Amino acid sequence: MAEEQFQERTEQATPRRRQKAREEGKVARSLELNSAVILSLGAVTLYLMGPLLVRQLEQFMIYIFNEAPKMHADNDTILALVSSQVLTFFFILGPILLVLAIIAYGVNVLQVGFIISGKPLEPKLDVLNFANGIKRLVSMRSLVELIRDVIKLTVIGFVGYKAIVSQLDTFYLLSDNSVSVFAGAMGMLALKTTLQIGAVMLLLAVFDYAYQRYDFEKSIKMSKQEILDEYKDTEGSPQIKSRIRQIQREMSRKRMMQEIPKADVVITNPTHIAVALKYNPDEMDAPMVVAKGERLIAERIKEIAVEAGVPIVENRPLARALNNMCEIGSYVPATLYRAVAEVLAYVYRLKGAKV
User: Fold this and answer.
1) Is residue 238 reached through a cis peptide bond, with omega within 30 degrees of 0 on the bond before it?
2) Does the reported pTM lie above 0.90?
3) Each residue of 274-309: pLDDT tens digit?
4) Which class would CATH give 255-350?
């Protein structure tokens, strides 16, 4: 048992292991990719919707300044103003927030598909374990994340610095322009800087996503013993399955033996094969095989037939043909009708029946 517990996990995860991990909320997902896409597409969305946002803010400010002389500086007036303008505020920012929410949801779906799991929200007492916390701090994963974050901050800081420095000459020339021109230029500066930073973050996020997939695949790997245990859980233990098949065969054989006294004739090989036939012209289209067997089973069929008074007829070719071509409960094939009819006619004559 100890050897099984410490076996090295070298095998790829099975579909059941992957599904179980997914149900627990364990998937290959990069938060860096989420941030990069939201930042980049959010900046583009803000640029495209900027004119509409500015006009709405302008109308809002005009309304506030027009109503300012009529307002009283008391709590009731201020509260009423804030309450009346809450919907206006959400109407202004609502489209941008909605687009950002759709972007965030879309990025997650592209990474892991649609998944709902409450497992990650369940309280885990092991996070309060001080020893486990120290192990996580000094683990290889923590080291990789530290190196990644340092590289990310360094690269982003350098790109942001270069983007701002490259625009300084334009910035100094804005002092003699109007407020609207200055605001527009600052907006473009912010947009270019954000897009450049977003592009770098996207590049880093691609590498982070590749690492997350590698780390996830590594974390769900299985040992050979785990695969064997899973197979036993899903398919059943080979010993148990063998025992079930044995019980089924015994039950089937028992039912077969119970049908032998109802048979009209038993055709034998004479010692190796025995086939019991039953025929009722009013209920059956053709004679039916109700029991068959070889060697010991054949001997038992003949014993029961003798006890029940069922005639036994030796016909080696017919016995072999019936045993090979027919299953228990099936009708005799048309190619054997003539041979079987001759045997039944012989049996009926023995019983004094009219043919």
Assistant:
1) no
2) no
3) 888 888 888 888 888 888 888 888 888 888 888 888
4) alpha beta
Here the contacts of 181-188 (C-beta below 8 Å, separation 24 or greater) are 187/47, 187/50
* Distance between CA atoms of residues 24 and 299, nearest Å: 59
The structure tokens 């959400």 sit at: 90
Alpha helices in the chain (DSSP H): 2-5, 15-23, 31-67, 75-112, 130-137, 140-165, 168-172, 179-219, 224-235, 238-259, 296-308, 316-325, 337-350
CA gap 237, 233 in Å, rounded? 7
Q: Which two tokens stand for residue 172?
A: 């100094």
Least Cα distance to 93 among 64, 57, 63 occurs for 57
Strands in 265-268's sheet, in edge-to-edge order, are: 288-294, 273-278, 265-268, 312-314
312-314 and 288-294 strand pairing:
unpaired
Count CA atoms closer than 13 A to 40's CA, side-chain side: 17
Structure tokens belonging to residue 170? 């334009």
What average pLDDT does the segment 46-65 reach?
76
